[in-house]
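hi support,

uploading two proteins for the ticket. first:
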Amino acid sequence: MVEELVVAGLAAASGIAVYTAAAAKVVKQFERGVVFRLGRLHGSVRTPGFTMIVPVVDRLHKVNMQIVTMPVPAQEGITRDNVTVRVDAVVYFRVVEAANALIEVEDYRFAVSQMAQTSLRSIIGKSDLDDLLSNREQLNQGLELMIDSPAMGWGVQIDRVEIKDVSLPEAMKRSMARQAEADRERRARVINADAELQASKKLAQAAGAMSEEPAALQLRLLQTIVAVAAEKNSTLVLPFPVELLRFLERAATPADHRAEAAPRPPQAASPSPPPAVDPAPVPAEEPAPPEHPEERRSALEPGAPGPDRKPPEDASPERHRPPHAA
């Protein structure tokens, strides 16, 4: 009898130990436990620490509440100004409602990843290239709102979204480099022109001050000579007073007026050339008529009269004597 009681006690103790081991669960500090009893949500979310469930009937699912860093694959798209770019980003999110993360969506990580890729392509199509390169803060906020709107129903909160890199074609990079170089050159020219303007104003003020005191110009000339002589060169500087030039100019002006006022001798009128006479037009030569063979033969015979030949004149005067004289 005692042995049976001992065996029964040991069996009960082992059963209690097995039940306790199956029912006892530990939830970590960064986790929350969701219990499903016979497939239905049972009770509230279990907090970190030791908790008990009914074996075989209950199922405990642990949900990580830490912030998850998820890289978004690079998405290729065309911006609003028709430039092809590749943009990748990173999303920081965490679960705020463990029950909804298990009930409302099958896999909240995959759902957030797909939503981030879709939103990133949408942002690329709505933005210009300059906004993607320089105005990323505003784009990050817009991308965060687009992902966070559906994720709130899944019990997920989007903490931050960052655009990491924007890849451009090589031709676009070269064009942007030329544009930046041209902009820098333009600013350099503007600065140089502004400096010239300011220098000209200062020189005008200095010239006005020197014009009031003629000795100041001479002192400035002497200072320039000292500056040139300080260098080791073979340049010879001969100061020439400006007042002497003005005196020579004033002296040459009356002489020019007297030369212009002097009377000029009358000039003989040159005979007018005869009027040009147009040469008479030369008549065109008419083509010669074709020669007859008999005429050619008679022309070749000696003594035969030709077109250019004259009949021989008789030396005796009797042939040319008139008949009444005979």
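and the second one:
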Amino acid sequence: MDVRILGGLSVRENGVSVTPAAAAPRQVLALLATFAGRLVPASVLIEELWPGGAPRRARYELQAHITGLRSLIAAALPQERGAADGRSAETVLAAEPGGYRLDTGSGSHDVGRFSRAAGAGYRAMEAGDLPRATLRLGEALALWRGEPYAGVAAGPRLRAEAERLEASRLSVLDQWAEAHLGLGRHAELLPELALHTARYPLNEPLNAQFIIALLRSGRVEDALEAHRRLCALLQRDGGREPSARLRRLHDLLLAARHTPLRKIPTQPRALRPARRPAAQLPAPAAPAFPVSAASAASSGALVPLARTAEPAQVPLRETMSTSVSISVSTTMSSSVPESVTAAVPNVPAVAGTRARTGRPPRTSGRRNAHQGRRHQAEAAQRGAAGER
């Protein structure tokens, strides 16, 4: 049995459609196909059909829908003896204690294929294999034919599942665009991103990718206009403020407007961390080539055009000990003579402080010398008096 959910419900057994035209059995089949291979409690199916409250004969009506679905399945199964590999309508749509289970056998399920392709694409992104990431993420997106469960009257369970699938699709789309930008394919990405931003005008990640692609294509004014339009839409949508990434991107656009852009490198570069929890990407590493303001936009960070040498890193322990020594010695030298300072243990003398800091102490050396000579003269007079 082959199941298609991503763009309208389609369930086929042996190549024959078993999707009913009536709304209620179609809804039951959609929920069973969503959780194919697992038991779906009858209470969940009833809640899906009657979210506002089930009628008295709800279980009888549910059983009637199951019987109708089994009739469609039986008609699609091979009629020759042994051709169905022991499958019957009762085993394909099996009744189990508490509910029902749809057995798809060795058939395909587009949601499962989507999850496997997306997972392979995320792992390729983590490994830095951008060409493979674009391929596998593109395969996942190609499985979508439209809105999930299109044409099905969705209850609470199907609505929640549709929202989850749509969020997964947007996450894959964001990573797919990120990989293409990392490969320098911003020009060919612009038409695709323009369609997606028109469909999701309030989606910040997609709009940010679109703005970055415009910037890297040299269309700075168009990028600024797209940024202003997005911020206005966010403000009208409940007074939402732009994210920190959008604010950094705006600063970069203003800088690029007055700065001649260097040639944008097309060599793959390290990407920024991903925004969706399904793909934990490594932190961006420093690129091995000169970074322009346009190419820096792909990571959402502000990178200057001219990079200066970073100051040498001093160990914290050494820095603290140096600062303490300087402050203590300077304070003591401003209030006591050098003779007293030299007698205090673990405190450098004024001369040592001068050599360490590269500047003279605050106190005058002449005054200290004068005071020392006066103390020596007084001591000499007291010694002479004692001898007499």
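thanks. also noticed: Residues 263-364 have pLDDT under 50 and may be disordered.
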